Task: inverse folding
């Protein structure tokens, strides 16, 4: 064998070894990519499993109202549902639908029924709004988000978000506000912002002890049945202590029905 042949043979052996090395290195790279993809898939699957468990648990477990530190379900109350929230963008109804009329409203809550008598003669706009929101099921599964226990004594409800910031998409002015600022036990009045012309919306409060409030708030009804429920919630106090905040004993409006009182 000539030297030229030997050199050619050696080159072929080198090229064969080099090709094998390159192929082996390429296989290693492919293996590393496959492992990385598998790890990513496993991480994503684990994340979806955890999320699914959290979502399924949230629909079955009692929820604590927004902003509360502690909560205690009192005797006679069921665990409250989770707030549904709202994207309501409704229009203000005509007050003529309530003028000169009296209505009976039933707040069905997780603690029992609270019955209200609504006075469309003295506060027609507030009553017309209340009736519309009840008809639209606006308050379904909405927590009463605020309780005060010193200075003034109210249980505030009517915000489907449970934050105190929810509105039905419209506002209206104050009606039938007492000149002396006195709100007797059993009063049903509109909660509002500082805007006396358009500050009323969907939130209202129930007075469980004689109260004086400055500024003027629309009185549009009275509690005729179920004050014992409000008293029970008030007696449990504010979540986490204090005198103004989320009720320690959660209460939610499940639905509201309204009928006109004849005669």
Result:
């Amino acid at each position: 064998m000539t030297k030229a042949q030997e050199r050619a043979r050696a080159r072929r052996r080198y090229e064969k070894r080099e090709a094998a090395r390159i192929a082996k290195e390429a296989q290693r790279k492919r293996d590393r990519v496959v492992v990385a993809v598998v790890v990513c898939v496993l991480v994503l699957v684990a994340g979806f499993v955890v999320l699914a468990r959290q979502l399924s648990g949230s629909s079955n477990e009692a929820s604590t109202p927004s902003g509360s530190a502690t909560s205690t379900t009192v005797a006679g109350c069921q665990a409250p549902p989770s707030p549904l929230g709202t994207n309501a963008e409704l229009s203000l109804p005509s007050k003529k639908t309530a003028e000169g009329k009296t209505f009976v409203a039933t707040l069905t809550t997780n603690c029992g029924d609270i019955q209200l008598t609504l006075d469309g003669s003295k506060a027609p706009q507030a009553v017309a709004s209340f009736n519309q929101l009840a008809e639209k099921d606006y308050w379904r599964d909405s927590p009463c988000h605020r309780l005060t226990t010193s200075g003034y004594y109210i249980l505030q409800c009517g915000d489907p978000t449970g934050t105190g910031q929810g509105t039905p998409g419209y506002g209206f002015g104050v009606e039938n506000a007492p000149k002396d600022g006195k709100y007797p036990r059993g009063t049903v009045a509109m909660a509002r912002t500082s805007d006396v012309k358009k500050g009323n919306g969907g939130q209202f409060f129930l007075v469980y002890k004689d109260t004086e409030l400055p500024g003027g708030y629309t009185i549009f009804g009275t509690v005729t049945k179920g004050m014992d429920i409000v008293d029970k919630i008030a007696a449990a106090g504010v979540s986490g202590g204090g005198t103004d905040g989320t009720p320690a004993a959660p209460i939610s409006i499940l639905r509201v029905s309204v009928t006109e009182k004849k005669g």
